[in-house]
Protein backbone atom coordinates (compact mmCIF):
# COMPACT_ATOMS: atom_id res chain seq x y z
CA UNK A 1 0.00 0.00 0.00
CA UNK A 2 2.82 2.37 0.96
CA UNK A 3 4.55 1.60 -2.36
CA UNK A 4 1.41 2.56 -4.25
CA UNK A 5 1.26 5.92 -2.47
CA UNK A 6 4.85 6.53 -3.50
CA UNK A 7 4.30 5.33 -7.05
CA UNK A 8 1.24 7.47 -7.79
CA UNK A 9 2.97 10.85 -7.23
CA UNK A 10 5.92 9.65 -9.30
CA UNK A 11 3.63 8.68 -12.19
CA UNK A 12 1.80 11.99 -11.89
CA UNK A 13 5.10 13.87 -12.01
CA UNK A 14 6.27 11.90 -15.05
CA UNK A 15 2.95 12.53 -16.81
CA UNK A 16 3.14 16.25 -16.10
CA UNK A 17 6.73 16.32 -17.37
CA UNK A 18 5.67 14.55 -20.58
CA UNK A 19 2.66 16.82 -21.16
CA UNK A 20 4.13 20.20 -20.21
CA UNK A 21 5.70 22.36 -22.90
CA UNK A 22 6.72 26.00 -22.62
CA UNK A 23 4.36 27.93 -24.91
CA UNK A 24 4.12 31.59 -25.95
CA UNK A 25 1.86 33.53 -23.61
CA UNK A 26 -0.57 34.46 -26.37
CA UNK A 27 -1.50 30.88 -27.38
CA UNK A 28 -5.18 30.16 -26.80
CA UNK A 29 -6.15 27.19 -24.58
CA UNK A 30 -2.49 26.36 -23.71
CA UNK A 31 -3.15 23.36 -21.44
CA UNK A 32 -5.58 21.82 -23.89
CA UNK A 33 -2.98 22.27 -26.62
CA UNK A 34 -0.34 20.58 -24.46
CA UNK A 35 -2.66 17.60 -23.89
CA UNK A 36 -3.43 17.36 -27.61
CA UNK A 37 0.27 17.47 -28.45
CA UNK A 38 1.12 14.87 -25.80
CA UNK A 39 -1.53 12.55 -27.27
CA UNK A 40 -0.10 13.07 -30.78
CA UNK A 41 3.42 12.35 -29.60
CA UNK A 42 2.41 9.20 -27.72
CA UNK A 43 0.51 7.82 -30.72
CA UNK A 44 3.31 8.74 -33.14
CA UNK A 45 5.95 7.10 -30.94
CA UNK A 46 3.86 3.92 -30.83
CA UNK A 47 3.50 3.94 -34.61
CA UNK A 48 7.25 4.48 -35.06
CA UNK A 49 7.92 1.50 -32.78
CA UNK A 50 5.68 -0.65 -34.99
CA UNK A 51 7.58 0.68 -38.02
CA UNK A 52 10.93 -0.08 -36.36
CA UNK A 53 9.80 -3.64 -35.69
CA UNK A 54 8.94 -3.86 -39.42
CA UNK A 55 5.34 -4.77 -38.71
CA UNK A 56 3.94 -1.96 -40.86
CA UNK A 57 4.76 1.53 -42.11
CA UNK A 58 4.21 4.05 -39.31
CA UNK A 59 2.05 6.30 -41.49
CA UNK A 60 -0.25 3.43 -42.44
CA UNK A 61 -0.70 2.54 -38.77
CA UNK A 62 -1.24 6.16 -37.77
CA UNK A 63 -3.81 6.75 -40.48
CA UNK A 64 -5.54 3.47 -39.64
CA UNK A 65 -5.93 4.65 -36.05
CA UNK A 66 -7.24 8.05 -37.15
CA UNK A 67 -9.78 6.58 -39.55
CA UNK A 68 -10.84 3.72 -37.26
CA UNK A 69 -11.78 6.04 -34.43
CA UNK A 70 -12.99 8.94 -36.53
CA UNK A 71 -14.62 7.61 -39.69
CA UNK A 72 -18.17 8.55 -40.65
CA UNK A 73 -20.40 6.65 -43.02
CA UNK A 74 -21.86 8.38 -46.06
CA UNK A 75 -25.22 9.53 -44.81
CA UNK A 76 -27.71 12.20 -45.79
CA UNK A 77 -29.65 14.49 -43.50
CA UNK A 78 -32.53 16.85 -43.89
CA UNK A 79 -30.18 19.83 -44.00
CA UNK A 80 -27.25 18.61 -46.11
CA UNK A 81 -27.16 15.78 -48.62
CA UNK A 82 -23.82 13.94 -48.35
CA UNK A 83 -22.81 11.57 -51.13
CA UNK A 84 -19.61 9.87 -52.24
CA UNK A 85 -18.68 9.99 -55.91
CA UNK A 86 -15.75 9.42 -58.28
CA UNK A 87 -14.46 12.31 -60.40
CA UNK A 88 -12.14 11.10 -63.16
CA UNK A 89 -10.93 8.18 -61.06
CA UNK A 90 -10.60 10.22 -57.84
CA UNK A 91 -12.92 9.70 -54.88
CA UNK A 92 -14.73 12.78 -53.58
CA UNK A 93 -17.37 13.52 -50.98
CA UNK A 94 -20.03 16.03 -52.05
CA UNK A 95 -22.05 18.17 -49.62
CA UNK A 96 -25.23 19.67 -51.12
CA UNK A 97 -27.58 22.05 -49.30
CA UNK A 98 -31.29 21.77 -50.09
CA UNK A 99 -32.61 23.65 -53.09
CA UNK A 100 -34.28 26.98 -52.44
CA UNK A 101 -37.18 28.20 -54.48
CA UNK A 102 -35.71 31.65 -55.16
CA UNK A 103 -32.43 30.47 -56.69
CA UNK A 104 -31.48 28.12 -59.48
CA UNK A 105 -27.67 27.92 -59.09
CA UNK A 106 -25.42 27.71 -56.05
CA UNK A 107 -21.85 28.76 -55.39
CA UNK A 108 -19.30 26.04 -54.68
CA UNK A 109 -16.02 25.23 -52.91
CA UNK A 110 -13.59 22.48 -53.89
CA UNK A 111 -11.89 21.58 -50.59
CA UNK A 112 -8.62 19.63 -50.23
CA UNK A 113 -7.89 18.32 -46.74
CA UNK A 114 -4.58 18.53 -44.88
CA UNK A 115 -2.56 15.89 -43.08
CA UNK A 116 0.97 16.06 -44.48
CA UNK A 117 -0.11 14.34 -47.74
CA UNK A 118 -0.21 11.17 -45.62
CA UNK A 119 -2.97 11.41 -43.02
CA UNK A 120 -6.68 12.13 -42.56
CA UNK A 121 -9.52 11.81 -45.02
CA UNK A 122 -12.49 13.66 -46.44
CA UNK A 123 -14.56 11.12 -44.51
CA UNK A 124 -13.17 11.74 -41.01
CA UNK A 125 -15.43 13.67 -38.67
CA UNK A 126 -13.06 16.67 -38.48
CA UNK A 127 -13.26 17.37 -42.22
CA UNK A 128 -16.79 16.04 -42.59
CA UNK A 129 -17.88 18.54 -39.94
CA UNK A 130 -15.97 21.43 -41.53
CA UNK A 131 -17.37 20.81 -45.01
CA UNK A 132 -20.91 20.32 -43.70
CA UNK A 133 -20.76 23.64 -41.83
CA UNK A 134 -19.35 25.35 -44.95
CA UNK A 135 -22.18 23.96 -47.08
CA UNK A 136 -24.77 25.11 -44.54
CA UNK A 137 -23.28 28.54 -43.84
CA UNK A 138 -22.58 29.42 -47.48
CA UNK A 139 -25.53 27.56 -49.03
CA UNK A 140 -22.86 26.11 -51.31
CA UNK A 141 -21.99 22.78 -52.88
CA UNK A 142 -18.75 21.59 -51.26
CA UNK A 143 -16.60 18.97 -52.99
CA UNK A 144 -14.08 17.38 -50.62
CA UNK A 145 -11.28 15.59 -52.48
CA UNK A 146 -10.14 12.16 -51.25
CA UNK A 147 -6.68 12.08 -52.84
CA UNK A 148 -4.41 9.07 -52.35
CA UNK A 149 -1.92 9.22 -49.51
CA UNK A 150 1.72 8.51 -48.67
CA UNK A 151 3.11 5.81 -48.47
CA UNK A 152 0.84 4.17 -51.05
CA UNK A 153 1.75 6.92 -53.52
CA UNK A 154 4.16 9.85 -53.49
CA UNK A 155 4.51 13.16 -55.28
CA UNK A 156 3.25 13.97 -57.86
CA UNK A 157 0.29 11.55 -57.47
CA UNK A 158 -1.49 13.58 -54.75
CA UNK A 159 -1.18 16.64 -56.98
CA UNK A 160 -2.50 14.73 -59.99
CA UNK A 161 -5.48 13.43 -58.00
CA UNK A 162 -6.44 16.91 -56.80
CA UNK A 163 -6.01 18.36 -60.29
CA UNK A 164 -8.03 15.60 -62.00
CA UNK A 165 -10.92 15.85 -59.56
CA UNK A 166 -11.02 19.64 -59.81
CA UNK A 167 -10.85 19.68 -63.60
CA UNK A 168 -13.65 17.12 -63.77
CA UNK A 169 -15.85 19.19 -61.49
CA UNK A 170 -15.23 22.34 -63.54
CA UNK A 171 -16.73 20.79 -66.67
CA UNK A 172 -20.02 22.56 -67.55
CA UNK A 173 -22.10 19.37 -67.59
CA UNK A 174 -20.86 18.34 -64.12
CA UNK A 175 -21.54 21.81 -62.70
CA UNK A 176 -25.02 21.67 -64.20
CA UNK A 177 -25.61 18.26 -62.58
CA UNK A 178 -24.93 19.80 -59.16
CA UNK A 179 -26.68 23.13 -59.96
CA UNK A 180 -23.47 25.14 -59.48
CA UNK A 181 -22.92 28.65 -60.80
CA UNK A 182 -19.75 28.45 -63.00
CA UNK A 183 -18.76 32.00 -62.04
CA UNK A 184 -18.78 31.38 -58.27
CA UNK A 185 -16.33 28.57 -57.51
CA UNK A 186 -13.48 28.61 -54.98
CA UNK A 187 -10.52 26.25 -54.56
CA UNK A 188 -9.48 25.81 -50.95
CA UNK A 189 -7.45 23.64 -48.60
CA UNK A 190 -5.56 23.58 -45.32
CA UNK A 191 -1.90 22.74 -44.65
CA UNK A 192 -0.83 20.08 -47.20
CA UNK A 193 -4.26 20.55 -48.77
CA UNK A 194 -3.45 24.25 -49.10
CA UNK A 195 -0.29 23.23 -50.93
CA UNK A 196 -2.33 21.13 -53.35
CA UNK A 197 -4.96 23.86 -53.75
CA UNK A 198 -2.32 26.46 -54.64
CA UNK A 199 -0.58 24.09 -57.07
CA UNK A 200 -3.91 23.20 -58.71
CA UNK A 201 -4.83 26.88 -59.08
CA UNK A 202 -1.49 27.60 -60.72
CA UNK A 203 -1.95 24.79 -63.23
CA UNK A 204 -5.57 25.72 -63.98
CA UNK A 205 -4.46 29.27 -64.74
CA UNK A 206 -2.24 27.87 -67.53
CA UNK A 207 -4.91 25.60 -69.02
CA UNK A 208 -6.15 27.47 -72.08
CA UNK A 209 -8.83 24.89 -72.86
CA UNK A 210 -10.52 25.03 -69.47
CA UNK A 211 -14.07 26.36 -69.95
CA UNK A 212 -14.55 27.37 -66.29
CA UNK A 213 -11.99 28.88 -63.91
CA UNK A 214 -12.12 29.37 -60.13
CA UNK A 215 -13.15 32.79 -58.91
CA UNK A 216 -11.20 32.52 -55.65
CA UNK A 217 -8.57 30.53 -53.81
CA UNK A 218 -8.63 30.29 -50.02
CA UNK A 219 -5.49 28.85 -48.41
CA UNK A 220 -5.39 27.88 -44.73
CA UNK A 221 -1.88 27.84 -43.18
CA UNK A 222 -0.56 26.23 -46.39
CA UNK A 223 2.82 24.52 -46.74
CA UNK A 224 4.34 26.07 -49.85
CA UNK A 225 8.09 25.40 -49.92
CA UNK A 226 10.89 23.09 -48.82
CA UNK A 227 13.58 25.51 -49.96
CA UNK A 228 14.31 27.21 -46.63
CA UNK A 229 13.68 25.56 -43.27
CA UNK A 230 15.10 28.55 -41.42
CA UNK A 231 12.58 31.29 -42.13
CA UNK A 232 11.77 33.31 -39.01
CA UNK A 233 8.64 31.26 -38.32
CA UNK A 234 10.57 27.99 -38.67
CA UNK A 235 13.14 29.30 -36.18
CA UNK A 236 10.59 30.85 -33.82
CA UNK A 237 8.23 27.86 -33.75
CA UNK A 238 10.64 24.96 -34.21
CA UNK A 239 9.24 23.17 -31.12
CA UNK A 240 5.61 24.25 -31.28
CA UNK A 241 2.95 21.58 -30.69
CA UNK A 242 1.13 19.83 -33.54
CA UNK A 243 3.77 20.70 -36.16
CA UNK A 244 7.36 21.13 -34.90
CA UNK A 245 10.00 21.73 -37.54
CA UNK A 246 11.42 18.20 -37.60
CA UNK A 247 7.92 16.76 -38.19
CA UNK A 248 7.36 19.10 -41.17
CA UNK A 249 10.73 18.10 -42.64
CA UNK A 250 9.79 14.43 -42.28
CA UNK A 251 6.45 15.07 -44.01
CA UNK A 252 8.36 16.58 -46.93
CA UNK A 253 10.75 13.63 -47.05
CA UNK A 254 7.78 11.24 -47.06
CA UNK A 255 5.96 13.23 -49.76
CA UNK A 256 8.88 13.30 -52.21
CA UNK A 257 9.90 9.70 -51.37
CA UNK A 258 13.22 10.63 -49.84
CA UNK A 259 15.29 9.17 -47.03
CA UNK A 260 15.16 10.33 -43.40
CA UNK A 261 18.97 10.41 -43.43
CA UNK A 262 18.62 13.67 -45.39
CA UNK A 263 16.70 15.43 -42.60
CA UNK A 264 19.74 17.22 -41.15
CA UNK A 265 20.94 18.34 -44.60
CA UNK A 266 17.52 19.86 -45.25
CA UNK A 267 17.37 21.39 -41.78
CA UNK A 268 20.51 23.46 -42.37
CA UNK A 269 19.57 24.31 -46.00
CA UNK A 270 22.43 22.37 -47.58
CA UNK A 271 20.13 21.50 -50.50
CA UNK A 272 19.83 25.17 -51.49
CA UNK A 273 23.38 26.36 -50.80
CA UNK A 274 24.97 28.93 -53.11
CA UNK A 275 26.97 26.26 -54.92
CA UNK A 276 23.79 24.34 -55.84
CA UNK A 277 23.36 25.70 -59.35
CA UNK A 278 19.80 24.48 -59.88
CA UNK A 279 18.65 26.39 -56.80
CA UNK A 280 20.29 29.73 -57.55
CA UNK A 281 17.49 31.15 -59.69
CA UNK A 282 14.94 30.57 -56.91
CA UNK A 283 16.66 32.45 -54.09
CA UNK A 284 15.10 35.79 -55.00
CA UNK A 285 11.61 34.27 -55.01
CA UNK A 286 11.98 33.17 -51.39
CA UNK A 287 13.98 36.06 -50.01
CA UNK A 288 12.14 36.52 -46.74
CA UNK A 289 14.24 39.55 -45.82
CA UNK A 290 12.35 41.50 -48.49
CA UNK A 291 9.00 39.67 -48.40
CA UNK A 292 8.21 39.65 -44.67
CA UNK A 293 7.28 42.63 -42.45
CA UNK A 294 9.64 43.62 -39.61
CA UNK A 295 7.23 42.16 -37.02
CA UNK A 296 7.81 38.73 -38.57
CA UNK A 297 11.54 39.06 -39.21
CA UNK A 298 12.39 40.27 -35.69
CA UNK A 299 16.10 39.60 -35.12
CA UNK A 300 16.32 36.33 -37.04
CA UNK A 301 19.09 35.90 -39.59
CA UNK A 302 18.95 34.07 -42.93
CA UNK A 303 20.66 30.68 -43.08
CA UNK A 304 22.32 30.49 -46.50
CA UNK A 305 25.12 27.98 -46.85
CA UNK A 306 27.96 28.89 -49.21
CA UNK A 307 28.76 25.22 -49.83
CA UNK A 308 26.15 22.50 -49.68
CA UNK A 309 25.18 19.19 -51.23
CA UNK A 310 23.99 19.44 -54.82
CA UNK A 311 23.46 15.67 -54.94
CA UNK A 312 20.34 16.09 -52.77
CA UNK A 313 18.52 17.98 -55.52
CA UNK A 314 19.78 15.53 -58.12
CA UNK A 315 18.37 12.63 -56.10
CA UNK A 316 15.15 14.49 -55.20
CA UNK A 317 14.29 16.88 -58.07
CA UNK A 318 10.87 17.48 -56.48
CA UNK A 319 12.63 19.82 -54.04
CA UNK A 320 12.68 22.40 -56.85
CA UNK A 321 9.47 21.33 -58.63
CA UNK A 322 6.90 24.13 -58.68
CA UNK A 323 4.05 21.59 -58.56
CA UNK A 324 5.31 20.61 -55.10
CA UNK A 325 6.52 24.09 -54.10
CA UNK A 326 4.00 26.72 -55.30
CA UNK A 327 6.07 29.51 -53.73
CA UNK A 328 8.76 28.85 -56.37
CA UNK A 329 6.42 29.88 -59.23
CA UNK A 330 7.46 32.74 -61.49
CA UNK A 331 5.78 36.15 -61.43
CA UNK A 332 3.87 35.54 -64.67
CA UNK A 333 2.17 32.49 -63.15
CA UNK A 334 1.35 34.34 -59.95
CA UNK A 335 -0.21 37.21 -61.91
CA UNK A 336 -2.81 34.79 -63.31
CA UNK A 337 -4.03 33.61 -59.88
CA UNK A 338 -7.55 34.44 -58.64
CA UNK A 339 -8.40 36.67 -55.69
CA UNK A 340 -6.81 35.03 -52.66
CA UNK A 341 -7.55 34.55 -48.98
CA UNK A 342 -4.54 33.56 -46.86
CA UNK A 343 -5.01 32.47 -43.24
CA UNK A 344 -1.82 32.20 -41.18
CA UNK A 345 -1.13 31.59 -37.49
CA UNK A 346 1.60 33.23 -35.45
CA UNK A 347 2.51 30.03 -33.61
CA UNK A 348 3.15 27.95 -36.73
CA UNK A 349 6.31 27.02 -38.60
CA UNK A 350 4.36 27.65 -41.84
CA UNK A 351 3.37 31.22 -41.01
CA UNK A 352 6.02 32.70 -43.31
CA UNK A 353 5.21 30.36 -46.22
CA UNK A 354 1.74 31.91 -46.38
CA UNK A 355 2.96 35.45 -45.72
CA UNK A 356 5.60 35.26 -48.48
CA UNK A 357 3.11 33.84 -50.97
CA UNK A 358 0.63 36.59 -50.11
CA UNK A 359 3.33 39.24 -50.60
CA UNK A 360 4.40 37.81 -53.97
CA UNK A 361 0.80 37.54 -55.17
CA UNK A 362 0.16 41.16 -54.19
CA UNK A 363 3.30 42.30 -56.02
CA UNK A 364 2.01 40.42 -59.07
CA UNK A 365 -1.26 42.37 -58.92
CA UNK A 366 -3.53 39.77 -57.29
CA UNK A 367 -6.00 41.02 -54.63
CA UNK A 368 -5.06 39.28 -51.37
CA UNK A 369 -6.59 39.19 -47.89
CA UNK A 370 -3.98 38.15 -45.32
CA UNK A 371 -5.70 36.97 -42.14
CA UNK A 372 -3.08 36.69 -39.39
CA UNK A 373 -4.12 35.17 -36.05
CA UNK A 374 -1.71 36.02 -33.25
CA UNK A 375 -2.93 33.45 -30.69
CA UNK A 376 -3.52 30.47 -32.99
CA UNK A 377 -1.52 27.40 -33.99
CA UNK A 378 -1.16 25.06 -36.95
CA UNK A 379 -4.19 22.89 -37.67
CA UNK A 380 -6.48 24.75 -35.28
CA UNK A 381 -9.35 25.32 -37.75
CA UNK A 382 -10.47 21.68 -37.74
CA UNK A 383 -10.41 21.41 -33.95
CA UNK A 384 -13.90 22.62 -33.08
CA UNK A 385 -15.62 19.52 -31.66
CA UNK A 386 -15.14 17.98 -28.21
CA UNK A 387 -12.68 16.76 -27.00
CA UNK A 388 -10.53 18.78 -29.43
CA UNK A 389 -12.64 21.92 -29.26
CA UNK A 390 -10.45 25.03 -29.30
CA UNK A 391 -11.56 28.64 -29.30
CA UNK A 392 -8.86 29.14 -31.96
CA UNK A 393 -10.69 26.66 -34.19
CA UNK A 394 -14.02 28.46 -34.00
CA UNK A 395 -12.32 31.85 -34.43
CA UNK A 396 -10.39 30.91 -37.56
CA UNK A 397 -13.25 28.94 -39.12
CA UNK A 398 -15.66 31.84 -38.65
CA UNK A 399 -13.25 34.30 -40.26
CA UNK A 400 -12.61 31.95 -43.19
CA UNK A 401 -16.30 31.31 -43.86
CA UNK A 402 -17.12 35.02 -43.48
CA UNK A 403 -14.57 35.91 -46.18
CA UNK A 404 -15.94 33.26 -48.53
CA UNK A 405 -19.48 34.47 -47.91
CA UNK A 406 -18.53 38.05 -48.74
CA UNK A 407 -16.42 37.29 -51.81
CA UNK A 408 -17.74 34.14 -53.46
Automatic annotation (TrEMBL):
The keyword Transmembrane is annotated on this UniProt entry: yes
Cross-referenced InterPro entries: AB_hydrolase_3, AB_hydrolase_fold, Arylacetamide_deacetylase, GDXG_lipolytic_enzyme, Lipase_GDXG_put_SER_AS
Taxonomy, superkingdom: Eukaryota
Single GO molecular function: acetylalkylglycerol acetylhydrolase activity
Major localisation: membrane
Pfam families: Abhydrolase_3 (PF07859)
Active site: 191, 348, 378
Reaction catalysis annotation: cholesteryl (9Z-octadecenoate) + H2O = cholesterol + (9Z)-octadecenoate + H(+); a 1-O-alkyl-2-acetyl-sn-glycerol + H2O = a 1-O-alkyl-sn-glycerol + acetate + H(+); 1-O-hexadecyl-2-acetyl-sn-glycerol + H2O = 1-O-hexadecyl-sn-glycerol + acetate + H(+); a cholesterol ester + H2O = cholesterol + a fatty acid + H(+)
Any Gene Ontology biological process: lipid catabolic process
Limits of the Alpha/beta hydrolase fold-3 domain: 109-267, 320-381
Keyword Glycoprotein: yes
Keywords: Cell membrane, Endoplasmic reticulum, Glycoprotein, Hydrolase, Lipid degradation, Lipid metabolism, Membrane, Microsome, Signal-anchor, Transmembrane, Transmembrane helix
Subcellular location: Cell membrane; Microsome
Listed EC numbers: 3.1.1.71
Bilayer topology annotation: Single-pass type II membrane protein
Record's GO cellular component terms: plasma membrane
Signal peptide: none
Family: Belongs to the 'GDXG' lipolytic enzyme family.
Designated name of the protein: Neutral cholesterol ester hydrolase 1
Amino acid sequence: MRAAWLLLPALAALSAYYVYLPLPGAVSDPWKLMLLDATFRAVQQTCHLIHYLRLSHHLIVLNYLICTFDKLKSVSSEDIKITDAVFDGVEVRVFEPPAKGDESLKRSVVYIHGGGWALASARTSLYNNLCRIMAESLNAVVVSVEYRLVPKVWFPEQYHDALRATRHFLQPDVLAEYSVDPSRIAISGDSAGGNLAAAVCQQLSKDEDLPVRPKLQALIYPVLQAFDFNTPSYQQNMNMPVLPRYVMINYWIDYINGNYDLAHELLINNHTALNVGRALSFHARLNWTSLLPPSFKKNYKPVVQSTGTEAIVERLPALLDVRAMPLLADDATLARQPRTYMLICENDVLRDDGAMYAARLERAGVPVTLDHFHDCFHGCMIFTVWPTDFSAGVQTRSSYIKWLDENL
